[in-house]
Give the backbone structure.
Amino acid sequence: MKIIIETERLQLHQLTADDNKYLLPITQQKEVKEFVSLEDFFAPMNSESEYVKHMLENFMESYKNNGFGPWGVVDKKTNKLIGWCGLHKMESSKEGDDEELIELAYTLDKNFWGKGLASEAAIAVKNYAFDNLQLPYIVSCIAHKNARSINVAKKVGMKYWKDGEFYKIPCQIYKIEK
């Protein structure tokens, strides 16, 4: 396990195929799926386990090709993998205006919501993006009614930038520059 970032309460590390068994229950939580589910991003598959396997393959491919990706978030107190947070390349389009952006994305187990952990992880990833990767800006594409994620984006320092689409799902894009 390659550790990328450590904060006071969290450790972010590269995910592996073995993490499927820990992430699958998180992706199945009704509250987690409320705004976006893996089925929105990947071609039809036979099971949710296949979706998570494919997601992890994409994360690992991103580590290799881009030097970043969504990383596993471990709660230091429980030593439990509680979700993922990190960067990935995304295509955003609105009215045929396609562009590739680097998105800060996060998903946590609902049992760890409301503790400031998503914000702590997202702020650490933002700092990594600017300090280590020298990115000029990052974005977050958030479903219009996802108040929790909008709050996290604002705590990171992001401001509403524009409306967009991610895998044909309408979203608001929040942005922060270095």
